[in-house]
Each structure stands twice: as C-alpha cells, then as structure tokens.
Specification:
Rossmann fold; Polysacch_pyruvyl_Trfase (chains A, B); five-stranded parallel sheet; homodimer; 342 residues; alpha/beta
Chain lengths: 342, 342
C-alpha cells in the first residue's frame, strides 16, 4: 500500500482532502546513502520553515506509480509537485531518472520543482539515448523548474533542456547543525565504493601514513551497511548520529560531496577529492571556497598533500551564511503564493 | 555635450522622443581595455539581435550625470535601464562603482539590469565602507536585477545585496567570431600590469623558455597603448583586429579573463593563470571547462606546466554552444515584453 509521509514518523495511506495547499515531494529514497537521506530531510525543513502554508507530503520513490494515480485524484491548481534533489540526474542511476521522468510528465499544469541536482548524461550511445527520453518527458511540462546545485550542471541542464533552470546550493546546506561542540580526536576517511570513485587506494594509504602519528584512523562510507533501509521514519536520528560522529573528528578525508557538507555543518576540517565527473569539485568552488576549514584538491603528490593536510587540520570554524543563495527558489515559491493568493 | 550612441558610429546629442521602447546602456567605457570594450559591444549585439523591439542607446561612463538628467525627461514605463558588465563591481575600481550607484538609484520604477559582473568588495575597512554605500544605493531600486558572471560572484552578490540576482556568462561569450581560419605561428603572452596581477615574472620567463624553440614569442596586454581612447565609434575595428591577431597564434598564455574568451572565440589554445581574486578561475570552471582548447591552472612548477602546455598546443577547436546559458536574462526581458505588450 502506498505511503504518504505527512509527518516524518508515521506514514498514512490516504491523502488528506482538506483545502490546505499541498507540496508533494516525490522520489524520497529508502536506500542507505546518508547524503541522499539528508537531502530529503533538508527539503522538508526548508518548506516547513519557509513556506508553512503548504502541507508537506513525502512519497517514497518505490511508491511513485501508485502515488501519481492517487495525487491526480485530489490535485488542486495551487498544489506544488517536486522531485528529490541530489546527484543522480542522468543515465548513471537510471531507476531514479525513470521515476523522475514519470513525475515531471504527470502533472504538467502544476508548478513542478526539481530540487537541486547535479546532472550527468554520459557521452555514449546509451547515455544519449537516455537523454532523449528525458528531454521528451521534461518537455511535456511547461511549469517545470529544474534547479542546478553547481554551475557545471546549470550549463549542462540549460544545454540539454528547454525548461526553466534555477541555480541554488545543495539543499543540505540549508540545515544548521547545533550543539556539536565536542572535543576532537582522530581522522576519518570517507570513500565511495561505486563507479564514481577515481582516487587510488595507494594514495589513500599514503594519506593514512601522513595522518597516523598516534592518531586513531577510521575508514567508512556515508552509505550505511548497519541498516537495510532508511525512510522518513528513521532518517533523522541516523543523520544526527553521523553529524555527531563527524563533529568528534580532527579531520575528514573524502571523495563524497555530502561528507564535505557534513564537515561544513559540524565545523570539521575536510579535504575533498574528485569523483568521476566533477560534481563535488564544482559545487565546492561555487559555494564553499570561502569556508576556510574545508578545501578541494586534484593533487596526487603525497608531499604536497602533507603540507595541505597539516595546514587544514589547524583551522577552526568561523561564521558562514549560505541561506541567501537559495533566493531563486524562495522567489519562485513567493511568486506562486502571490499568484494563488496563498 | 552629452553623447547618445543610437548607432555605433556617430553619436547624437538629443534623445529621440519617438514611441519605440528604449534600452539605455549606461557606463560604456572609453578606456583602452579591449576586454571591457568587447563587453559593451556584446551587449549591443545581444539586445539588437534578440530584442529588436528596443531602441538601443549607449551612454559613455563620463556622461553619466548629464545623461541621467536627460533620460529622466523622456523615460517611459516600458523603457529598460542598464549598466555595463565586466569585472569591476566593488571598491577596487571605485569610479565605476560610483557611476553604477547613481544609475541604479536614479530610475527605481524601471526595469534596471546590471549586465554580468564579477564582484570584489575587499575585506578591509575601506572596502566595507564602500560596500555599505553600494548597499544603500542598490536598495533604492526594487526593479534592479544584478547578474553574476561566475558562481562565486553570484554567492557574493546574494550575500551582499537584497536585489534579485541572476546567473549568466560574461556577455562577450555571446559573440560569435567568423572567418578566422588563418595559419598559426608563435606564442602570445598576455599579462596584466595592474593590482590584480599575481603571477611572478620568473614564472613567465620559464614559460617563455618552454615555448621558445624557434617559435616567435610576443608579449602584450589587452589594454592598448596604441590608442588613447576607445568609444562605440572605433571599438569594433580594434576588437576585430585583436581577434584576428589571436587567431594567428599557436597558443595564448595569459592572466586576463577576456584573453581567454578571445581564445575561445577564435579557437586558439589558451592557458589562463589566476588574478588576485579568482574572477577568471571561477568563470572558467563555470562555463568553459568543456571547451578543450582552453584551460586554467594554479600550477607554478615549470616541469608540470611544460607537460600541460605541450598537450594544450596540440588541441584543435570543436563546436561549442553557450548561447542557452543566457536564458535567465532572455526570460527577464521576455517577461518584461509580455508585461508591457511589446
């Protein structure tokens, strides 16, 4: 039975038929990538804090088909439809792209928002075939606004699609972490194991040597293997636990963009390496270069990296504010409210 | 007497009082920086090609005060006011910032566009004092749209100002160069002499050695010293001449952002170094990373640079398209046209 998360904890199976305008949030992940889970949590926080007029309703990606049918039955003109943000627009994570196409094509008369994404349709016959399918689906919706979370994706989305394209940071940067003033010890290595990984194990081993003088070292990934499934019912406690863990580290070494964001939120020094198509690199230079306790590198010389790490580990957190960078999304929703006198 | 450039060649001293909507383009430079001159030429090309409903009128920066008075007398609600794009928003080039404040504050009821800029208010008492003055002037105009030409400036503008902020490339990327299929010989070094310069002369000399095996080397700057003054009357021929010169080179080595753009337009291999506050670096990563014959570096090791240059000089031009990246500006003017039924 399809589940609708009106609140985070307990889903219901019937959509409310009150007159309050609805904000439908499709594509919510159940897999155990904490970065992607944090995106969906941040979307809820953003709408509930900034646009409380809306009843916010999350729908798991696995329920996409049934939920489209159910939402169509109650949809009103002032309701907003959205699909989850992240780094999976394109042909590399095709299940998500297929769900996204269905949602974008299903409600062409309603304001439809693609929360901030990175995009990567590969320059291969398969990638270009999938791009054509997405172009055809997105083109059905003149009220669709794509949002890019880095400038490279902004360029690519505008090149690939005729839809409106806005530019904001990743939604997770909307979150503000609190009460994380712990003492710090140890270095945490957070590396991906999927097709996007490009950093060599040899280099990771060299970094471990650089950091190992009596310091505890751990290796992990922000994809959990301790739970089988994460939903809006249990994601918050897992994310808070991860942020607490980060806040006890002296430094994070990673190739995961969301590990860098967690480092930003917790004031933890962090060195980010690239993935296969630059999504972390671009987002770093676009939004985070002024945050002194995190940095990005393409360097592979251990001696140069040693200098960089030794400098980075000494830096402490300062005030920062990326709230205003969400203003193009604020304005889109503000204009929508004015249009429908909400 | 104040000059109004209704066409490029010959200015007039009286504004036309016909019913055609006007597009006033303030802040047009008379100094001899060819990059900044190309910005003002590109603005004219963009409006005349894409929005021919408007009578496009350029006003030299030196005429700002008198022109504001004259424009106020004939201004109609559908007219658009604009200030020139470039890399001088901030306290480093204060004359331009002062003219910009006057224009933004003068016509608060008309759509006002700040063409794509980079921004740099220094983190010094003087820089922050000037920022407050700009904040106060910009705040007078609720119809002012700032446009950032790189993501770092987009973040900074949104942080500093409450005005709307859009995101597009530098206007010069709108230009398409033609008939430049010359044979190539030699390397051209294009380096700035102003306060933004950070690259050491020693390093420039090492690069000359790398490139000197029988190849003619020249050094120049895109700021001309062969003419005293450039206006809309003579800028086009000087820019075309510069583009032709670039198109005859095997490679351009530069720290000038617009020298990289001229290399893009002419299909000339180009290596760009940084300036004092990253304006070229950010714009490169935002818009040009997919253009294979140009690249950016922070490297200062001659051996590593030698490898990079030897690879770069072999690359040839391919098709590229950044036209769609101007879509946020297209849409702003499209909505304006709809509002006034133009």
């Amino acid at each position: 039975m399809v589940k609708f998360y009106l609140q985070e904890k307990v889903p219901v199976s019937v959509l409310p038929s009150n007159k309050r305008p609805k904000f439908f949030s499709f594509g919510i992940p159940t897999y155990t990538n904490l970065g992607d889970q944090a995106v969906s949590l941040a979307q809820r926080r953003y709408i509930e804090n900034e646009f409380p007029e809306f009843q916010f309703i999350e729908i798991l990606e696995e329920d996409t088909d049934d939920a489209i049918t159910a939402v169509k039955e109650i949809l009103q003109p002032a309701d907003v439809v959205s699909f989850v943000g992240g780094g999976n627009m394109g042909n590399v994570y095709l299940d998500h792209e297929i769900a996204r196409r269905k949602v974008f094509a299903a409600f062409p008369e309603n304001l439809t928002i693609s929360f901030p994404q990175s995009i990567n349709f590969e320059d291969t016959p398969a990638g270009q075939t999938e791009l054509k399918k997405s172009q055809s689906a997105y083109a059905k919706n003149p009220n669709l606004f794509l949002i890019a979370r880095d400038a490279q994706s902004y360029h690519r989305m505008q090149t690939a699609f005729d839809n409106h394209v806005l530019f904001t940071p990743d939604m997770v940067l909307y979150i503000q972490a609190r009460d994380l003033d712990h003492s710090r010890s140890g270095a945490l290595f957070v590396f991906r194991h999927d097709s996007e990984k490009v950093i060599a194990e040899d280099l990771i081993n060299s970094l471990k040597e650089i950091l190992s003088n009596g310091r505890p070292l751990k290796r992990t990934d922000t994809v959990l293997d301790t739970v089988k499934r994460i939903t809006p019912s249990n994601r918050r406690e897992l994310i808070v636990k991860e942020l607490e863990w980060f806040s006890r580290q002296e430094i994070i070494i990673t190739d995961r963009w969301h590990a860098m964001i967690f480092s930003v939120l917790t004031g933890t020094p962090c060195l980010l390496f690239g993935n296969s198509y630059g999504k972390g690199k671009h987002a770093y230079f676009d939004w985070l270069e002024h945050i002194e306790w995190v940095t990005y590198t393409d360097e592979d010389d251990p001696q140069r990296l040693k200098k960089l790490i030794n400098s980075l580990i000494q830096r402490s957190a300062h005030e920062y504010d990326v709230r205003k960078d969400f203003r193009q999304l604020d304005r889109l929703l503000q204009l929508h409210k004015e249009r429908f006198s909400l």
